[in-house]
Amino acid sequence: MSGVARKFGGGKPAVGTPSLAWSSVVVVASLLAGASIAHNIYKPDLTLPPVESEEKDSGTKQDTEKPSGS
């Protein structure tokens, strides 16, 4: 087997693998850090447009169409 490993360049054998829990912590921390950086750079506009303007427009149209003969 050592001949096959030398044929393809060898390389160092793996010393150890991180646990699944530690890998999950690192992945979540990386995602949160990336999202924080992206939101600080782009600063999304989270303001909502006013809803009352649509209700007033539809209300005024209905009021003008009603006859005032009472």
End-to-end Cα distance, whole Å, is 102 Å
The major sheet is characterized as: none
**Mean model confidence by pLDDT:** 75
Strand content: under 5%
Number of strands: 0
- Write down the secondary-structure element order: HHH
General shape: elongated
* Total DSSP helices: 3
Overview in brief:
With 70 residues, the chain is mainly α.
Any chance you could write out the topology, listing elements then pairs?
Elements: H1 2-7, H2 20-42, H3 52-65
Structure description:
This protein has 70 residues and is an all-alpha fold. Helices cover 61% and strands 0% of the residues. The chain has helices at 2-7, 20-42, 52-65. The chain is elongated and about 75 Å long. Belongs to the UQCC6 family. It is found in: Mitochondrion inner membrane. Residues 56-70 have a biased composition (Basic and acidic residues).
What key phrases describe this protein's structure?
mainly alpha, 3 helices, 70 residues
